[in-house]
Amino acid sequence: MRPKVVIRVRDLAVDALAGAVAAGDVDLTIGPDRAASDSINQQTAFTSLWVLWYAPSHSLAKKRTLKWKDLLGVSLVAAVLLKIDTTTNAAELPDEF
Question: Average pLDDT for residues 7-34, to the nearest whole number?
Answer without folding.
Answer: 88
